[in-house]
Specification:
The complex is a heterodimer of chains A (315) and B (537). Chain A is an alpha+beta fold and 315 residues long. Chain A has 6 helices and 13 strands. The radius of gyration of chain A is 28 Å and the shape is elongated. The two termini of chain A are 52 Å apart. Chain B has one domain: Up-down Bundle (Cytochrome C Oxidase, Chain A), CATH 1.20.210.10. In chain B, helix 2 packs antiparallel against helix 3, helix 5 runs antiparallel to helix 7 and helix 8 packs parallel to helix 10. The chains are: A alpha+beta (315), B mainly alpha (537).
Chain lengths: 315, 537
């Protein structure tokens, strides 16, 4: 339909033609029946036609308007079904990318272990996303590609697509997942296949996410992006669902631990606990249970980068 | 006082005084009015919440409220509108008031259970809304209470769930009452195929209420067990399955759509022949399609879950059944429109509501086809397209039928007429507002805007502005309608027994009816929509 999404994925033309087919039949019936309705109202209004004719029904008509819609809906069913079957046939050579959803971010892990918060896919190559939800239901939705799949904790799911058009497209979470549901989004960047391969050669660490040299002290910022931390925390002191990183190091904080209010100093151990055991203690004024542990995800090296970054933000 | 012979049910003095003469009355007409007032109160609450949501969506970013408030508001809007307004809706109000009269009975089969069901309804509503006043605030889960988020949220989702559980009993009792009434209390001579169509749809609805509601009751109890006792039914963290929850929820909540829409279709089937002065086209086809919808409607719930990761077999089976259930609805539309062929149409407010019902119901139904087809569903599921679709069915279908019904039976219930011109003006503004409000959401959904979105990207701005403006127009129409009806209930011109020339039995009794409806039980000899003879002949 829309020029900018035309050929964005291999499903667009099929989904859109099914939609146009159904939409066309629907509009035909809507306008046709409405035309009859309006015509009858005008033609047979009381002032024009004071006496109604007695008609109880007509069996032939009943059969006609049962059979014709039945044929049409079966055709539409078939059209919808065949398009869907194609969407379920994952090619064997599809490039796997693990997609992790949590409240309220998506992260993408590639075959070599590199993780990004933006989905990079090569043009004209089949890609399959292995979908993992960590906390609640999410749904990965790329409108331009006409793909959507719910992500259910504890269940495996996957979708595939092949994009034929370079560009950036929005990725949304389509299944309501709590407070910041409408902010849970990402971008898919379709890049030439060669450039896609180059991406993995440079460096697989977080610093390379955006392929730019960064100040060592703010390298942690890339780590926060990589794991989607910024959905709930800010670097400028703004309060979101979780506390800001700004001015955190060395400050005394009031936290709730085992339902008791206590004061702790934010040191390295505190930051470590906050990332690996986030529900052990909760800063007063925030809610428990929203953050999951990043154990086995954030590496020691990345943790040190985060620490440097927080120190930098606290100067 | 025109052609009145007896005291009306309103004037009749029982052995209780003041408000107790109403809230303890077992008269089906008083109970119908109790339901009407409760449902209208909740409906207006739901409307205000809906207008607030549209106001927030007027512009990207924060407009008037924060995301936590928005999420609570759309949850409450859904809970109130579904469980407290549209599910009881037409059966509880017009079913109670009119079913016994339309089949020539003095009351329903179990008048005391009837009163009990209203009390259960009120009790359930209070429990459901009590979360508003508790620490932690109202639930923010959406009216579907999907696991596992519903188990993680710190808001009070339990009262809403318990409230819905209690409301279920009210629904079941009403269903049983109506079914027994229809089986046992039809007037002499009223065979099944001489029964008017509104009672027929109440009959279909009654069976769905009895058979489907217990499932949601059990499901909601499982939620309570899970949240309170940590039994792992649905939460994967406890070893449960979130998809199981979705199945159980929709096994009830999809048939619930038919609980809502069947009586709406029934009301339309009464209004159209009366204002066309002509027998309804294909009476038996409408009856059979009612039963077909009630039956097949049980087996289509999976179409709410096409992207959930169900097996392929389940997907195409549910998709096929969804297409099948569209056919009886289409048959009804064809029959309603054909009734107008060679008719003699009185252009009055109830007819305008019925005609516009046909239009919005068609849009709702036809947009459902795009959602029932698998490949397009994948794209449209969980977007604003779905929101537009079900508002066209539930608000457009049920809401317009309710408005039509209240304008149609107003003279019977209150014994007075409303201002016809004001009623038509109100309808027109409401109709324009409705279309302006919901049509842009189809476009938004196709462009990819997910539902339950507090904030959106600039691309979606334009249609959202149009939609919000529509909500204001709709509100204006609603105010005019309410003003007209409330004023006319006491100040309107006194109505005759049969102001519209209807042929069903309720138009043979006084307006408002006497306590026992009929002086003597009528003997029915002709079909309900025979417009060749006058009703008294």
């Amino acid at each position: 339909m829309n020029e900018s999404t035309n050929n964005a994925s291999n499903f667009v033309s099929q989904v859109d033609s099914a939609f146009v087919f159904i939409f066309g039949i629907s509009i035909f019936f809507l306008l046709g029946i409405t035309a009859f309705l309006v015509y009858y109202i005008i033609r047979y209004r009381k002032s024009k036609n004071p006496v109604a004719e007695h008609i109880e029904g007509n069996n032939t008509l009943e059969i006609v308007w049962t059979v014709i819609p039945t044929i049409l809906v079966l055709a539409m069913f078939y059209y919808g079904w065949s398009g869907w079957r194609y969407q379920k046939e994952v090619p064997d050579d599809a490039i796997p990318i693990k997609t992790i959803a949590r409240m309220w971010s998506f992260t993408f892990q590639y075959e070599n272990g590199m993780i990004t918060d933006t989905l990079f896919v090569p043009k004209d190559k089949a890609v399959k996303l292995d979908l993992v939800a960590l906390d609640v239901l999410h749904s990965l939705y790329i409108p331009a590609f006409r793909v959507k799949q719910d992500m259910v904790p504890g269940k495996e799911a996957l979708i595939w697509f092949e994009s034929g058009r370079e560009g950036e497209y929005d990725v949304y979470c389509a299944e309501y997942c709590g407070l910041l549901h409408s902010y849970m989004k990402s971008i898919v960047k379709v890049i030439p296949a060669l450039q896609y391969e180059e991406m993995f050669k440079i460096d697989s660490s977080a610093i390379a996410v955006n392929n730019i040299e960064v100040d060592k002290r703010t390298a942690g910022a890339a780590v926060t992006r990589k794991y989607g931390c910024n959905a709930c925390h800010t670097a400028d002191g703004t309060k979101l669902v979780g506390p800001s990183y700004k001015n955190i190091m060395g400050r005394t904080r009031t936290v709730i631990r085992d339902k008791e209010e206590i004061e702790v100093v934010a040191d390295e151990d505190y930051i470590r606990r906050s990332i690996y055991e986030p529900n052990y203690e909760i800063v007063k004024g925030y809610e428990k249970g929203l953050m999951l542990s990043y154990k086995d995800q954030v590496t020691e090296e990345e943790f040190q980068l985060l620490l440097d970054y927080f120190k930098y933000l606290s100067e | 006082m025109s052609d009145r012979t007896n005291l009306s049910f309103r004037e009749e003095k029982g052995n209780r005084k003041g408000i107790f003469a109403w809230i303890l009355s077992t008269d089906h007409k008083r109970i119908g009015i109790l339901y009407l007032y409760s449902i209208v109160a909740f409906f207006l609450t739901g409307v205000v919440l809906g207008i607030l949501m549209k106001l927030e969506l007027l512009a990207p970013g924060k407009t008037v409220m924060d995301p936590a408030t928005y999420n609570a508001i759309f949850t409450l809007h859904g809970v109130i509108m579904i469980f407290l307004v549209v599910v009881p809706g037409l059966p509880a109000v017009f079913g109670n008031f009119l079913l016994p009269i339309m089949i020539g009975a003095k009351d329903v089969a179990f008048p005391k259970i009837n009163l009990l069901s209203w009390w259960i309804y009120v009790f359930g509503a209070i429990i459901a809304l009590s979360s508003l006043f508790m620490a932690g605030g109202p639930p923010d889960t959406g009216w579907t209470f999907y696991a596992p988020y519903a188990f993680k949220t710190n808001t009070n989702m339990l009262p809403a769930v318990l409230g819905a559980f209690i409301l279920g009993f009210s629904s079941i009792l009403t269903g049983i009452n109506f079914i027994v009434t229809i089986h046992r209390m039809r007037a002499p001579g009223m065979t099944w195929f001489k029964m008017p169509l509104f009672p027929w749809t109440l009959y279909g609805t009654g069976w769905i209420q009895i058979l489907a509601t217990p499932i949601v009751g059990i499901t909601l109890l499982m939620i309570v067990g899970e949240r309170v006792l940590n039994i792992g039914f649905f939460d994967p963290a406890l070893g449960g399955d979130p998809i199981l929850y979705q199945h159980l929820f929709w096994i009830y909540s999809h048939p619930a759509v038919y609980i809502m829409i069947l009586p709406a279709m029934g009301a339309i089937s009464e209004i159209i022949p009366t204002f066309a002065n002509k027998s309804i086209f294909g009476y038996k086809a409408i009856v059979l399609s009612t039963l077909a919808i009630a039956f097949v409607g049980y087996f289509v719930w999976g179409h709410h879950m096409f992207t959930s990761g169900m097996s392929g077999t389940a997907l195409y089976t549910f998709s096929l059944l969804t297409f099948i259930v569209a056919i009886p609805s289409a048959i009804k539309v064809f029959n309603w429109v054909s009734t107008l062929h060679k008719a003699s149409i009185q252009l009055e407010a109830p007819f305008f509501w019925a005609a516009s019902f046909l239009f919005v119901f068609m849009i709702g139904g036809l947009s459902g086809i795009a959602l029932g087809a698998l490949t397009t569903n994948i794209h449209l599921h969980d977007t604003a397209f779905v929101v537009a679709h079900f508002h066209f069915i539930v608000f457009g279908g049920v809401g317009f039928a309710f408005m039509g019904a209240i304008h149609y039976w107003f003279p019977k219930i209150w014994g007075r007429m409303y201002n016809a011109r004001l009623a038509t003006t109100g309808w027109m503004i409401f109709f324009i507002g409705f279309c302006t409000l919901y049509l842009p959401m189809f476009f938004l959904g196709f462009s990819g805007m997910p539902r339950r979105y507090y904030d959106y990207v600039e691309e979606f701005h334009g249609p959202n502005v149009v939609s919000t403006i529509g909500s204001w127009v709709l509100a204006l129409g609603l105010i005019i309608i309410l003003y007209n009806l409330i004023r006319s209930a006491t100040k309107g011109e006194v109505a005759t027994k049969n102001p519209w020339g209807g042929r069903t039995l309720e138009w043979t009794v006084d307006s408002p009816p006497s306590l026992e409806n009929f002086d003597e039980i009528p003997v029915v000899t002709r079909s309900p929509y025979d417009y060749r003879k006058n009703i008294d002949e």
